[in-house]
Amino acid sequence: MSNVGIVMRRELASYFATPVAYVFIVIFLMLTGVFTFYMGNLYERGQADLDPFFTFHPWLYLFLIPAISMRLWAEERKSGSIELLMTQPITLWDAVLGKFLAAWLFAGLALAFTFPLWITVAYLGNPDNGAILAAYVGSFLMAGGFLAIGSCMSALTRNQVIAFILTAVVCFLVLLTGFPLVLDLFRGWAPQSVVAAIASLSFLTHFESISKGVIDLRDLLYFAMLIVFFLIATSVTLEVRKAQ
Amino acid sequence: MIRTEHLSKRYNTLTAVDDVSFEVKPGEVLGFLGPNGAGKTTTMRMLAGFIAPTGGKASICGHDVETDALAAKRCLGYLPEGAPLYGEMTVRNFLHFVADLRQLQGARRKERMDYVIQHLQLQGVLEQTIETLSKGFRRRVGLAQAVIHDPPVMILDEPTDGLDPNQKHEVRGLINAIGKDKIIVISTHILEEVDAVCTRAIIIAKGRVVADDTPQGLKTRHESGRLDDVFRTITV
Predict the structure, then answer these.
(1) In the prediction, which pLDDT does B136 show?
(2) pLDDT tens figures, B29-67
(3) Measured between CB atoms, which of A10, A79, A82 is closest to B87?
(4) Domain span at A24
(5) Cβ contact (<8 Å) for B49 and A87?
(6) Which residue on chain B is closest to A2 by alpha carbon?
(7) By the CB < 8 Å criterion, does A2 face chain B?
(8) In angstroms, rounded to a whole number, what is the distance separating the alpha carbons of residues A91 and A100?
(9) Which domains are assigned to chain B?
(10) Could you give the number of structural domains in chain A?
């Protein structure tokens, strides 16, 4: 097995060695259920689709994903096990990628456990299965984006609480870049093209376009580049701070 | 072979390691001595490739620790200070994890696993999670991961710290047993350890090498013939 695979498997097993994994999955499923049925009114609106379910994903991820990612590096640095890991014959990138993939797979697993909702709407009506699948893909990609940011924030500190808050704040900003709150900061002085570029950085813009059922190359590239960028930022951060 | 040439590490205004040069040859067990904060751990971390030197060079078995880091790490077994481990893993899973990273397979893997389990007496705790182990057992698990791939070079940062006298005796026995034809560097501030296992000792103070000799040779540097007195005279 490759070094990335070995690191990933250990990391994934560690989620399940503690109650973290079970608590997370249960809370995630309960919250998606509450949002979908009570706030999204899945039954009352009388349409066989999962829009009420996916609409809330960015906001759920905002505080649930940092809970997965906060321990990625902060814990290694706090316990000192990062020294053990980085003196094994693996590259820093092997470790960064392996740990990120473990967190992403775990988030994917939690997402996959929401399948009864799909079965529910398929039983009640005739949903557009292609659109639902696309929305799942979009949600999974968005989780990857949040996790890559979380990985970088976790590398910045030895304290998991700080990592959690930093991740939530940065993800919130990335989520909101499509909203006036952020854009107005730039409108006064930056050229229109810059404002448009900032708006296109938002998670929401890209997630919403995928969850309408259109998987556009630009949206895929957006998430891929975001993930790669923040994983490289994680490596650079660790290179500088791992021994502190 | 370990070789360092003018190895230095500076943090802004602080010089942790200052122009350290030495060579260690196969068969030598080198004791790395010095007061706390003298630069022992920093030097070992640079040799292990965990932190980068700000000056000079170091190599393990001819592989530069910076430019040929993976090859250097493959030749090396390293026990970090305080023996950090993954607390939520069982001892068995942890050893398998390290064996994976060290690319041990098949019969060789089984043989090495059995070897470390037997020599570090881990049979009774294999299925226990590491966080439930006593300090002595944790240290032994840390040692197990450092020797599992039978490396030609071992760097052990305070391998007997926190062990009781019996466990210290066992670890020293292990170092003596595996030390033949190998290179072992141990840091310690327990001077009796130098007598018990080392063939050579380097004393480091304020980041500089202040003595490099056999334990016998060092003792002649003070009229009392005791290492404690030599250590104090040189490092205070």
Answers:
(1) 84
(2) 999 998 888 889 999 999 999 999 999 999 999 999 999
(3) A79
(4) 3-241
(5) yes
(6) B101
(7) no
(8) 14
(9) 1-75+152-171+178-236 (3.40.50.300), 82-150 (no CATH)
(10) 1
